[in-house]
Amino acid sequence: MVQAAQVNIERNMSQTEEFVPVWQQYNPESQLPDPVPLAVKGTIPSWVKGSLYRNGSGVFQIGDSKMKHLFDGMAVLLRFIIENGEVKFQSKILNSESWEACYKANRLVVNQFGTNALPDPCKSIFSRFFSLFTSESPTDNTSVNIIERGDQLWALTETQKMNRVDPQTLSKIDQADLGKYVTVHLSTAHPHLEKDGSIYNLATNFDPKAAYNIVQIPAKSDGDLDFENSKIVASAPSRWKWNISYNHSFGMSENYFVILEQPFVYSIGRLIFRKFTNSTIEDCLVSYPEEQSVFHIIRKDGKEINVKYVTDPFFVFHYVNCYEEDGQLVIDLVWYKDVDSVNKLYVESLQGNAILQLGYAPLFARFVVPLDVTKAEVNKNLITLDTKATAVLQNDGSIFCTPDLYNKDSDGIIMELPQINYKTYNGKKYRYIYASPILTKKNRILKVDLKTRKFIECTDIDVNHLPGEPIFLPKPGSTREDEGVLLTPIIANKPGTESYLLILDAETMTELARATLPAKEIMTLTFHGFFKPM
To answer: Of 362, 513, 365, whose CA–CA distance to 40 is shortest?
Structure first.
């Protein structure tokens, strides 16, 4: 059993005054459709030119409807425009169908992940009853990620719907429903981008026999996505008859896909009767902490390796990277000991100091699995790489894996929202990770050196702010993996404080510049984003 030091990150209300965080106060009047200039302190390198786009839950109340879960907030898109050492800021509520309907009704009318819509006061009790038997369209509140393909920007969430966004106005201009092209019911917000312009994504089918599907969306000649020719290139069944594992992301190396079947699952039975019981999607998720987690390793030609790779139960939101070396597959991810960590992300628990009430902090973990076990010996560690990770052949033919937690003083490396030099090193052996343990007591931006097993911290972020996901931007013509800058949103949490964009030297983790928003403007909490050079 893998042990992790328990980290107390509960709120201490005796030391922190209760208040509604600044980023939870965003509303339609907070929008900045026209970019506003920011005050820049320091010097931004001249080669940093372009737009940083961010996406996340931004609006947590519509009329009397309050969002209960962090995943429920209506999408707000942010844009930082950087040129000639100057920065402008723009923000806009995404005009999804869900937002438009809710705004018109001045209440939540589309069910979200952890919050159900209020009943329509104009409908009779009979109308509400018969609505139980009508199909429910999944939300198009695409509030998790934003990616670029060709000249297109796409905002994503965990349903199969994607919204195309205008890069200048941040308005929705089109929508794609992946379920119209392939038989899937959910899709992650973390597709992997291929150099040929296509993307791969993990999509869920609620038929347990075809539960986990890797979907390829090819690119047209102009680089835009070709949804008409989308196809399922790999598939794996659920090990349960009535449960399907929840997945927020997946791993991909040069030749393999990695899908984790974790014991945090959608209950098919609960989903079927959800409308009768007025349950949310989050209510239909069940944890089985006594069961193992299982890795499905599938070749890119669609054939799954006929080996069962098992490990102690754990949960993952985000993979860091995967790569192959000496016949072994390295799987780096952010590891949660609590398999039901999704259930801890309630907005109410983020009042005051905005610290998540988790039993255990998220840690960096490296798993390594052997790809060929035909000559393996039982009860012998099959890993030959320089790592503390193990993979041992069991008598039943399964491979039991334990992770290397890169322990430092037994606490491990606390992190979330990991980023790498993605363009060059995704799917390949790499050295550096950048991360931010957002919403924990570790208020810092982190650089991990996987070769030396050491890390550098940028800790000049006070307790009234929350560091977001650091985006790595390589310097043009760079030859070193970490040669570039980090662009990190620093979000004001306590009223009276200002949000800013922090720009760090990615090699030394020293501050180069910061661009501060006017005091009256709100930077929303964003999950993910990317930088588009000019």
So the answer is: 513
**Closest to 75 in 3D by CA, of 148, 181, 12, 161:** 161
Only one residue has tokens 């999509």, namely 203
Q: Which residues, including other chains, have CB under 8 Å from residue 221's CB and lie 6 or more apart? A: none
The C-alpha atoms of residue 175 and residue 67 are separated, in whole angstroms, by 24
- Residues paired with 176 in a beta bridge: 162
Encoding tokens for residue 529?
């984003």
Least confident of 41-50, 130-139, 239-248, 324-333: 130-139
Residue 274 domain-assigned (yes or no):
yes
Q: Does position 250 have pLDDT exceeding 60, yes or no?
A: yes
What global pTM score does this model have?
Answer: 0.92
**Is residue 242 assigned to a domain?**
yes
Residues, the chain, total?
A: 534
Contacts of residue 509, defined as CB under 8 A and 6 or more positions apart, other chains included, come to 445, 447, 456, 457, 458, 486
Q: What is the maximal distance between C-alpha atoms in the chain?
A: 69
SS3 of 426, please?
coil
pLDDT digit string (tens) for 401-440?
Answer: 999 998 755 678 889 999 999 999 999 999 999 999 877 7
CA–CA dist 499, 82 (Å, integer) = 17
Which residues lie across from 52 on neighbouring strands?
Answer: 80, 531
Q: Rounded CA gap, 117 and 427, in Å?
A: 41
Q: How many domains, in total, are found in the chain? A: 1
Residue range 385-413: average pLDDT? 89
Range of the domain at 252: 22-533
Distance CA 294, CA 311 (A): 6
